[in-house]
Amino acid sequence: MSFDEYLHGIIETYFKFSSKSKKRKQKELLAMDKTVKLEEITDRLTVLARAVSGRPIRIFPAEREGGYKNNAFFLPEYFSEFDTFDENFSFYLFRILFHIFQQQSGIYLKEGTDDAENARALAVKYAPEVLNKLFAEFPSVKSVYDKLIARYTAKSGKEPPDLSYIYGKLMSAEPGNETQIDDKNERIRQAIEEEIKSMKQAGAVEEMKVQSVDKKQQEDQVVHNYFEKIETIEEHTGGIWRDFDGSDEMDEHADALEEVNMKNVVRTDEETHTIYHTEFIENVAVPESKELQTGRFHFIYDEWDYQSKRYKRNYCKLFPENVDTKDFDYYKKTISENKPVLNGLRKILANLQNRYTETKRQYDGEHFDIDALTDWYIDLKAGRTPDEKIYVAKRQPEKDVSLLLLLDISLSSDGYAAGNRIIDVEKQVALLFGEILNEFKTDFAIHAFYSKTRNKSVFVQLKNFEEKWQTAAGKISAIRPQGYTRIGTALRHAGYLLEKRPSKSKWLILLSDGKPNDYDRYEGRYGMEDIKQALRELKMKNIHTYALAIEAQAKYYLPRMFGKNRYQILTSPIELLNALVKLYETVKYFK
User: Fold this and answer.
1) Of 116-125, 169-178, 276-285, 479-488, which gets the smallest average pLDDT?
2) 3-state class of 460 per DSSP?
3) Which of 140, 153, 404, 408 has its CA 20 to 30 A from that of 187?
4) DSSP label at 553?
5) At a CB cut-off of 8 Å and minimum separation 6, what does 97 contact?
6) The pTM is what?
7) What number of helices (H) and strands (E) belong to the chain?
8) How many other CB atoms sit within 10 Å of the CB of residue 403?
9) Which residues contact 402 (CB under 8 A, 6 or more apart)?
């Protein structure tokens, strides 16, 4: 940062003193014991909202009073109006229930009503209708409501009370449109090719408008700003475009970034080095992906549209991709540093391999099969020829199984969970588990996937079923996060590969956060329903599926797609490896 920029920053900071004081006061309020912080109770409120409504409700911090928008509930970041923590917590319980009944009543901001004050007034106007239904269903909530009314009435004095924090404001949540939501640790919005160098949390935002990028205007611009404001930044309203080079000085401009209004943004497909992100992004005005001009060999797959309840035929293009670079040093380091884990796995799987199972109704064996012996005696007394298979024998089960491990290497894997970088955990698990599967001569393959619109789903071939493990290990070590997460297409292609195997038992294991996401609207319920349909297709082919994830947010997605007992959410590499061992036992003895 140059001296004139530094000087400008000092002067600007001086005039922002009052604003800073206000923020300090807010932080002091948050530090008080009675204050309830939304971020600390979001999980509990989410469970409550989903249980009562039966909908996939998500909860986000509001810019002010908040409201509801489809399945997204926006609530104040903190609340401290009452004297006790429990009373302040009851405010959030009331707001959750109020928005659920508001949603069920179909009350939302109609098109063309954008004025914020009008949105608050309309919320008050329609409140009695919602409250009647709410109190009929949950009578005890009325006491909380009465306390809130009394508090804000006393607070206003002779002026009309401001009830916006009680009811929120109406938002343009049209029925039938699922709100598209990004997790707060999602890194794949503005980054396609390169790793993110830095990341900063933006303030709460409830609604966004995406501006179109006029490339011609950007290229032909004749006005250049050589001296930029350092301590202020303005929202985009059109006009002169600047280069999307992805570079900035995030930390040096932190104060200015706090003032950014995220309501108007530009969506671009350029490389990005730094992310300034908010809790909520609505996927509005995203154009259909353009046709990919390529002569490369590819597969064509359908995609399921849950709204029309039909397939979009020949909709997705999947490109098999080989890995040219190899990193055997990473492979050797992983094996060396995890020898205790590897030895433990080897011992467990050796016991599984040598374990005998009892097989009933055999011609010979260690002891009698009581059920078979009973049938033998009945047949004998009835004058029928009895079945002589009356023994229980211990035998080793046949190893007739094919297993495909599918890794999600989209940019969401560049995040961290429990202090572990997700992509490194995936690679280490693939290497260690592959090492063991190879030793025990299991028929297995390891592949990865990422995407960039329906026209470019990439299936990274790391180890084919017939390929030697020593060759594949170096390729697995070299993979890196890139692109988006079109899971349904990858599942269908993995199923195609497994279907060709002669094994009786076939398993597809997915390592992913379970969050569907792509540049062209493959998100929210649309993406989840496509994944569920892909899993149904695999089941019809007698291919068993299982999902593993170390990303905490996966608990919101995996249960809805994979169903009960078909997934695990873990917190560390060791847990993930132990889960694979248990799964291997299930696979080995699956009937």
Assistant:
1) 276-285
2) strand
3) 404
4) G
5) 52, 134, 138, 141
6) 0.57
7) 18, 22
8) 26
9) 443, 444, 445, 465, 498, 501, 503, 505, 506, 507
